[in-house]
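Lecture 7, part B: from sequences to assemblies.

Below are the input chains for today's worked example.
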Amino acid sequence: MSLNYRAVGWNRQKRLYDTALVTGIVLYLAVFIAIGLTTHPEASAEVLMIRGFGSGAFVLLHVILAIGPACRLAPRLLPLLYNRRHMGVAMFSMALVHGALSMLMYHTQGDLNPIVSLFASNTHYDDLMRFPFQTLGFFALVILAFMAATSHDFWLANLSAPTWKALHMLVYVAYAALVMHVALGALQAESSPLLSGFVVVGFAGLAALHLFAGLRETGRRDRSLAAPRDGFVDVIALDELPIDGHGHVACLSGERVAIFRDGDEVFALSNACQHQNGPLGEGRLIGDCVTCPWHGYEYERTTGVSPAPFTESVPTFAVELRDGRVWIDAKPRPARDAHHGGEA
Amino acid sequence: MTKDDFYVGYQDRAPVSVGGTMRRVAVALIVVAVALAAGLTAEQDPFNDAVFEFLEVKTFEGVLRSDPVPMLEVTRPSSEGASVSSYLLVKLGKHGADDLVDGREGQRARIDGTLVYNGAVTLIEVADGGVEILDGTPSSRAEPARRLLGSRRLVGEIVDSKCWLGVMKPARLKTHRACAINCIAGGIPPLFVVTNGDDADVYLLVGSDGRTVNAEVLDFVGESLIVTGDVAMMGEWLVLSAEPTGFTPAAP
Ligand code: HEM
Ligand code: FES
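Predicted structure of the full complex, as structure tokens:
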């Protein structure tokens, strides 16, 4: 278990990102409460806060879930992905205020402990229409809390990338629970077509985005390559490889390989970033390193090792140029132990 | 190896084209979010104009009543002579005031509490230790206990009196059900509310023999119900006496 994680410091871009995020949230809540007090002067402040924070968190969750597939479809949006975890933590904070206020209003000061009350006051678990919808919100809030708490790269390094990624897939479980939380709660009491419209359009939109991005991905699965000769596969003509630092992705015996060209030199690395499986082939060769398009992890182009002090590394592939074509060894060289005899 | 418009998050400046795209995306997202906030909040269903005088403690003098539920009978001077109002009594939080009136039927008391009112009917949330007995000799009722209005079949919803009369908004339907169940289980008198447009008829709900039915109605709270029972007028209160075993769900 390694205690090394990349502590990316604060910089101008992160500050801009967070400024936009906080501005959006503050404006959302301010507008929700101010307009609410004007159009509904009899409303109580608590319910406006409960609804403002709850709906705000739900709206932001849609943005968070849309960013992934949107970036696959339009790579120009990739900067949104960089600090997406900040959105996640902000969304959790809003959801926490909503949940805490709801618990305070509806479940404290009674005969039951508030948590017991949450589960035991409305007991129609056997009936969909009468289902205790607040428990679904609680369930989602627990998942979001767990994700917010482990969002730091510290945990990513310690839980290992695949585990972390699997855990963070739970956000879809939380989203499903929240759709039901709203459908079996507010939608049964409120007649607003905008609220029900948002839930339906939001769900359909997210489903469509994920579907399109997935289809695009499958469609990109590469043309089949000729059978290997002495272990090497003829992948592409040298001239077809971009010379401006862009990469090319090929599929060799089931593994995706990121191929970059610098003049007459060609480099091949595993396509999967060690951070969160970002597609290295969609990154850039910058100087001696291939840079991941998702969060900017770097790998030295010949060794696949991250420059010190970082310790990640990806497998690399031997490359041979034969008659103007690029041949790549189908068998990867295992990822090297970082900075232990890493000669090129 | 140019960098074209490739974005690297830990560099201090993004390429100009990327910065421009991001600025437009951020502005668009914020505009859509704010428009949604405005729409969602404006589209909320109307709230009733019930009042909870939160944090305002006043003092009332009157006669304690325990039948059918804890009340304080207050005599109010008016132009056409004195009139009597019966204020429901409940305690802080989700607790009824049965223990405050136990064995004190008809005694004169001074009560510190907070007013909660909706339309013609009023409730006092009694402050902690807010009951002082002025005269322990029971006095008789100031007016005829009940005037029977007859049997009725009503379509409405069971709510808890404290929230409905103003402590919480909205205080009905599915979103409020768990809270209302907690309140009624804690001894807050249940009401049967029949809404017609912006108006609502409010009935104190008791069993056909006049007993309190809090524990028996918990399963029916916050849902559209058909209830058949006898309706009587008691001061400014309508009292509905009905058997919970006969409650049936109504199509919403
Ligand atoms: C302990 C956890 C939670 C509890 C007790 C809870 C409780 C409630 C209640 C009582 C309502 C109805 C409010 C009303 O319309 O009068 C509600 C609505 C709603 N909740 Fe939650 N909730 C919880 C968690 C969450 C989470 C984690 C989210 C989203 C991130 C969320 C999003 C919403 C939304 C969008 C609505 C509908 C709009 C609104 O009325 O606010 N809730 N919730
Ligand atoms: S996936 Fe995060 S940097 Fe590659």
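Note for the exam: The pocket of FE2/S2 (inorganic) cluster (ligand 2) is lined by residues A 273, 275-276, 278, 292, 294-297 (CB under 6 Å). Keep this in mind when comparing with the next example.
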